[in-house]
Amino acid sequence: MFDAIVIGGRCAGSATALLLARRGHKVLVVDRSTFPSDVISTHFLWPHGTSYLNRWGVLDRVLAQTPSHTEINLVNDGIPLVGTVPVELLRQYFQQLHGDDTGVVQRYASVRRRVLDKVLVDAAVEAGAEVREGFVVEELISEGGRVVGIRGRTRQGTRVEERARVVIGADGRNSFVARTLKLPKYDERLKCTFAYWSYFSGFSPGSAHMHRRGRMSIAVVPTNFNQNMTLVFGPSEWFENFRRDVAGNFQRALDFVSPELGEQVRTQGKREERFYGTVDQSAFLRPLYGPGWVLAGDAGSSKDQCTAIGMTHAFRDAELVAAALDAGLSGRQPLEVALKQYESRRRSQSAAAYYDYVCTQAEMRPMRHDELQLFVSLRGNQAETNRFIATHGDIAPLSEFFQASNLMLLNDGAKEFSRDHAVFADFEATSRMYQQNLFAA
Amino acid sequence: MNPTTPPLEDDELIGSLLVAAEKVSHSLKGRSLEELLSTPETRESLGQYATEMGDAALQVSEMMRNWASHIPWESFISLRDSAQTPNDDGAVRALWSFFSEELPPVRKALQDMCQPAHQRRKVDPVEEYALDKNTYDFFRPAGRDLLKRTEEFHGWVEARRQTETWPYSRILEVTPGSTALVTNELGRLTQGINFASQDYLSLNAHPAVREAAARALHDFGPHSAGSAMAVGNTRISEQLEQALSSMLKMEHITLFPTGWAAGFGAVVGLVRPEDHVVIDRLAHACLQQGARAATKNVVRYEHLNVEAVRQSLKDIRGRDPRNGILVVTDGLFSVDADWPDLVTLQAICREYDATLLVDVAHDLGSMGPGGTGTLGMQNLLGKVDLVMGAFSKSFASNGGFLASHTPAVKQYVKMFGGSHMFSNALSPVQTAVVLKAAEIIRSPEGDMLRGKLFEAVGALRGELTGKGLTCMGSPSPIVPLLVGNEKLARTVYRLFFDRGVLAVMVEFPVTPIGAARFRLQVQASHKPEEAREAARVIGRCIEDARAHLTSAFGSELV
User: Cβ of A412 under 8 Å from any chain B Cβ?
Assistant: First the structure.
């Protein structure tokens, strides 16, 4: 009999197991994979994501094999912004959400899942959790409407049954736990991006580049093995056309959004792996807990990749759910009450606003005139540029930045104007051009 | 497979799987297991499709297999073994059962992975457009044709009007009492409990107020016929100035034709480009715009944070000992129903030679001892540098005022505030109404009306809170009911109309993004039971709207 069984041993799962085990709970983690193991992911950690790793004492192990930076380069329709996430905003984030701001770091990192998930699984084992790899869960055991354990097959093919006071579904967007419990989806947002990426060696972009033009975006981010995660994404309406020639259209997208980066990838880049891609990214929420079970990470709420927030949110969930479960399992609080608090943190107004923000971004509509004007106004205003980046990454609340008097002050203090930027030259014609499917024959 | 060939992409592999699945379904169609077992060609082709599926599944990337964990990749891969023995009946039976039972839902799941989700479900584009955008999206339209570029905003407003989610185009058909009759944007009429009007003490229907209006109309006509600087003022204007002066314990009162004009005029009248304005982030729009018009040196401090004001004043005085600083706050904030520690704020201003301006538009008359608002509640009558207000909430009329301690300030703002000198004065009818209202407010009847008002406020807040809803701030004539998500708020708003609740929805840019709310404006004429009934309707509307949008988000802030 375990205190907790965690299904899924990746970002949300191993982290939850590690935190629970450190607090003295008897934890079993099962995952169908054997680690190291890869999985579809933008594998980007925003500075609060790396801060979580640091709080748990595993950041050094990740950074020993992964490049990390503080400066982020954003270019929207040719309007560049460079910034870093301020420490004060990171502290406020941790204070507000977790009541403690230890271990804050400003660095972000792009870390391959075969690297990161292995570090997390190992750390969970070191913390005292039992981890069974290659374990396929076949059934949830329910008694009197309550989930009390699992049945599954070990790596060796033996069928086993394990019981626990709570079962944690940390098993991703296509969660077995959620499917088995037939959990409904809420707040579904069907429009999303299609995303294709691969890994290129042979050039060095310095730090992360995230560029957008019209309805397409690209990102080039240094990652493990001296490679660059090179990603293009666009509206799902264009997916059918794009996939007809993945390699050709990948390069076409790079060239369209940033001729410089396109040139660099074409002339210096060596592709090290096949292209990966998906359009299956519509956003939803699921109920987060019930009798004997709770969800964390993508299993409970999945969103489009366009702000690359999934892993960081999984870490957030892990800290929140581990704190709640610790309070419940140790008897300091009724489990139901603790999990209700976990839910209210995940369903807050700030969370709703960010969810809406990501889903709206994921529609990949061309930037509006006023959005681009805002970027122009941010040029030369480093503090607000940094705050915008922190807002985009769900560190600072949207309501602080997107507040009328703030936006008016930004307008008033602008140092650059539309005449300084080419996109405004014939904005209407450009906007019409942006609506044309770039990949139509 | 040639080892130098790069692996196929997952897309193509899943495509091959689906093609094979299609062929399987075609060859199994209408066939029984017995028929299959007795047809060697079919056995063979099934084996071939099984091999195709297994081969494709085997090549699918580890990334995809781990991510699409709902697809039984291992079962596909093991199909290759079953396909090795087309003569073995047991193997064929196993294939048949996999293909006929397990495959169809998996095939659907694989198709879903390759097809953009938005193609699976139809949505109403007008509704989607209406619920989606924000007013601010249209603040900076593109193009050099000032008139043509307003069309996009108009298109969005039309979408919201059509979907009955636009809160700015209703028409009142009667006196706005505790209930009202309104027509909406589609011409539909409804009667409802009215929280949409600002008449906190219900003086609009008071016989003495109406009588004063009639008398002024008789004595002076409807028109003041000129600026207050010329001969727009009458002797009742003077009486009104005296009444306000004695109510606020401030010697000098300047009247303005609207509250907006008073706030804007006070700031631009006093502040020059080298001066500074330190203003609460949520202060009223007339003050924010006044600050922007007066100087580029504007600091917006965190709502109610007097320590942030102290720090700003210290910073400013550290680099600029010469110029003026105006600190600006509301007495009662109408969107959050809260108020600052004015005692400390005024003390800090004195410490740094800054001037404090308090806007008492919402609280003067409606709360505090004798209707003296938050100033009276904090024992600050006559002790604040500058006070401005509006008559439109508790005094049953348009109009506003600025109160100062010296005649010099009054003269100066009249001359340089713009909105006083270059507007037509309050009409005689308005002036008489405000004067009568001020009398009632300061009388025992005023106390009685405030008592009734707060009884209704208590009933409303109590019932809403009891339903787990969030009423922001403290008891005041305004009850801000937090909803959060704009889509949800707009959908709730639409439901209110048919279920007999009239309320003002406020959203970005009035509130920050993701913090939409209803501003329920209570009146003395609301019966507590009426308020409780409205709260019950509101609770049901929020539940139903959440179900309509299948939304799981709550309304807690962090």
Answer: yes
